[in-house]
Amino acid sequence: MANISHFYDGQLRRFIIQFTRMMSNFQYETGKDGDGNQALIKVPVRYGDINRQVANILRQGSENALVSVPQMATYIQSLTYDRPRMQEPTHIDKIHVRERSFDPETNTYSGTQGNQHTIERIMPVPFELTMKCDLFTNNTDQKLQILEQILVLFNPALELQTTDNWVDWTSLSYAEITDLTFTSRSIPSGTDDEIDVASMTFTLPIWLTPPAKIKKLGVIEKIVASLYDEDASKIDVTGIIGSDLLSRQEITFGNYGLYVEGNKVRLLQSRDTLNEKTGDTAHVSPTRTVAKTDTQLVYGREIPWAKVLAAYGRITNGLSKIKLETSITTANNEDTVTYITGTIAEHPTEEHNLLFTVDEDTIPSDSIVSFSKIIDPTVTGPTGSEVNGQRYLITQPIGTSLHDLNITSITHDGSTTATVTCSLPHGLAVGDTVRITGAAPSYYNGTIGVKAVPSTTTFTYNTVSATNAAASSTAQTADLTKFTAAGGVLLTPSPLTSPAVGKPVGVTNRGPSAWGNLVASESDIIQYNSTTGKWNVDFDSSNVTNVQYATNENTSVQFKWTGSQWQKSWEGEYAPGDWVLDL
Fold first, then answer.
1. Domain boundaries defined on the chain
2. Which residues contact 78 (CB under 8 A, 6 or more apart)?
């Protein structure tokens, strides 16, 4: 069987979204405001059948929320092949397009003719789409106001256009109302909240079209599987597959993967296309999502770019682009898919590599202060010439001879300071590091720096929000709203639990170490404090679970903390389908 590339253009999805938009922006009057003007409220539109919407309304109708009516819900009732509208299935329509020539040296178009393309459009397939729109109200006046605004539009139908791309010959359709059930009081049953539902039925004759072929000099240049791009964020279509309203699929030619390292990109052959007879193992490396930061990926055999691109076109140095699909974490700690983009150019000496210049504006911003370099603290120790704020990302733990401080209680002053009481002299000084575990609430725990030593059996430290950073330092950074360079914000507990409950345990390092009594874990970021002359943990990896970004100042490579490990934020391996080449 031939290897057919996957495509998805979201055509049905676009008709659903346009139909939902058609039913949006209707209003109803609730009365007059204080100035005697009409008080109007928009009727929300959602995607989902009648049972889902009624269940949602009842779930919200509690002592904590009002019943959310009126509202409308749209959904597909049926999709059937429309044989009477069938035309010649094997027909192919050809359009010839001529481009103006482009001068890559001046980045301008000239008045002369450039490339010529032939677009082959395959005959689309006719279908009849039946859509339902349910209007939920709790009184007759609401229903009459909304229905009157809707029904006058269909005389006899309302035209829909899903895209303004002139190449797409299936973008036009129309919606015709074919049935109306004025009222239904059978849903819900057995409740005191009666919801009146009016149901409208619409038919839409639509076309589903295969991908167009774009040919250059008789050779297929690329497959166009997405002709549609718009912002549909105002419509709630949660019932459609996925919550992202913008459906956009790109096809990766040849099912190749991509490896990005610094300013170079190279092709990787997919495992799915390995030749079993020759034992080709061109791609045996782990994926970038599971690779450690120091993993050396196995490249496999080299694949010349020119040989692969021969059937698609030429790269225009500095203008052609590569888009890398990746996920970033927003300020609300929500994952979202985005693209790292950059321009490409041919490598002067390495045919299997392209030169990649990333667009800095598409890279996630650092969420914590950059670090000087990555070190193995068991091999590399302090030089004695460190300046205040010097920061290292460590690959091995520090402090293996741990001493129990015999904590008896931890209290809090209600501001930002916690006081620890020990049953025996603790022997600590300001700036020493202590790791506290087992206390509750969790804001008492962390790898902290000693703030003050009131007595031989007590010491204090600052509580810091663990979602930003997990350690307390003994001096604030230049940003007075933060207490640690990693972004730790001073925490005033609310509600306050004092003394701490649970079984608090505190340990510090008593063994010989070039790092003093520092206690730190693998993947922590440590920072030098010139005031105390000691090192403290500024980013406690064991206590930070949300995503963070930081840049290695020594290499200018950005790293991402995933909640369990550090990895390069956008460099690495991309699977087929996770990158797009734009010639």
1. 11-224, 253-366+571-582, 373-546
2. 128, 129, 130
Q: CATH 3.30.360.10: does it fit domain 11-224?
A: no
**What is the model's pLDDT at position 95?**
83
Q: What CATH number labels 373-546?
A: 2.40.30.20
Residue 150 scores a pLDDT above 90: yes
DSSP string computed for 279-297? T--S--PPPTTT--TT---
Residue of 249, 223, 202 lying closest to 311 (CA atoms): 223
Q: What is the pLDDT of residues 497-555, one digit of tens each?
A: 899 998 999 988 877 778 877 888 888 888 888 877 888 888 888 777 778 888 999 88
The answer to pTM > 0.70 is no
- Residue 353: name the closest of 473, 466, 262 by CA: 262
In this prediction, residues 80-104 reach a mean pLDDT of: 84
Q: Are 543 and 216 in contact (CB under 8 A)?
A: no
Q: Minimal CA–CA distance to 516: which of 430, 410, 414?
A: 430
C-alpha closest to that of 119 among 213, 183, 34: 213
d(CA 522, CA 393): 9
Looking at residue 308, its pLDDT comes to 80
What distance separates the 2 farthest-apart alpha carbons in the chain?
A: 93
User: Do 5 and 233 meet the contact criterion of CB atoms below 8 Å apart?
Assistant: no
